[in-house]
Design a protein that fits this description.
Layout lengths: L2 E7 L17 E5 L10 H4 L4 E3 L2 E3 L2 E3 L3 H14 L5 E5 L3 H9 L7 H18 L6 E10 L8 E3 L11 H4 L3 E7 L7 E5 L2
Parallel strand pairs: 1-7, 1-9, 2-5, 2-6, 6-7
Antiparallel strand pairs: 3-4, 7-8, 9-10
Length: 192
C-alpha cells in the first residue's frame, strides 16, 4: 500500500511551487489543469509523458481524465521503480471539469458518479506499490469563520461536505501563505 499525503492550502499559498524541492528524477507530476508549474527549468526537468518502444517515458502528464490518470498511475507503479513520488497537482479540478462536462445531464445520479470517480482514484492510489508516495495537492476553503475556521478540501457541490483534510488521510500538510513578489514567501506549515 502506498503512502498518501495531502498537500492543501488556499490559492497562491505555494502548494505547487513547493514541488521545486523534489528530485525530478524520482518525481512524476500529474497536472489536472493545463498549467505549467512555476518551477525554474520546469520543462527541462519534467518531460511530457510518451510511450517509446512500449515503455513509459517522461515524468509529466497533463490530464483531467480519471481513467487516463489511473492507467498512468498503475503503469508508473509497475514499470518505473526510480519514481518515488507521484504528485496529483490541483486534483480538486477533476471534480470541476467533470461538473462542467455533465452540466446538461439532468438528475442527481451524475453527482454520485462524480463522487465515485474521485473515490476510485483515491483507492487506486492506495493500491500502488509500497515504496511510492502519492501527494494529493488541493485547494481548501473555510466553511467556518475567521475566528473559528473550519477548513475543507475544495470540492464541487455539497456531496463532499464530509471531506475535511484530516478525514481523507491523517498525513496532511497545510500551507497558509502570504503571496508576495519576493522569492521567499512567508509559508507556515501546520495542521488544520
Amino acid at each position: 500500500m502506498s503512502n498518501i499525503i495531502g498537500l492543501v492550502g488556499l490559492s497562491n499559498s505555494g502548494k505547487s511551487t513547493s514541488l521545486k524541492y523534489l528530485n525530478p528524477e524520482e518525481t512524476f507530476i500529474v497536472s489536472c489543469t493545463n498549467k505549467q508549474l512555476q518551477i525554474p527549468g520546469f520543462r527541462k526537468k519534467y518531460v511530457k509523458v510518451s510511450v517509446e518502444d512500449g515503455k513509459l517515458k517522461g515524468n509529466w502528464l497533463i490530464s483531467n481524465s480519471y481513467s487516463q490518470i489511473e492507467k498512468i498511475l498503475k503503469a508508473v507503479s509497475k514499470t518505473r521503480p526510480e519514481i518515488k513520488v507521484i504528485c496529483l497537482d490541483d486534483c480538486n479540478y477533476l471534480l470541476s471539469n467533470e461538473t462542467f462536462q455533465n452540466a446538461l445531464v439532468k438528475g442527481y445520479e451524475k453527482f454520485s458518479v462524480m463522487s465515485k470517480n474521485y473515490y476510485d482514484l483515491i483507492q487506486t492510489c492506495q493500491e500502488l506499490r509500497d515504496n511510492l508516495t502519492v501527494v494529493f495537492i488541493s485547494h481548501i476553503e473555510n466553511f467556518g469563520t475567521d475566528i473559528d475556521p473550519e477548513y475543507r478540501m475544495w470540492t464541487t457541490g455539497k456531496y463532499f461536505a464530509c471531506i475535511t483534510p484530516n478525514s481523507v488521510n491523517p498525513k496532511i500538510i497545510t500551507i497558509m501563505g502570504i503571496p508576495s513578489q519576493a522569492e521567499n514567501n512567508i509559508i507556515i506549515f501546520g495542521r488544520v
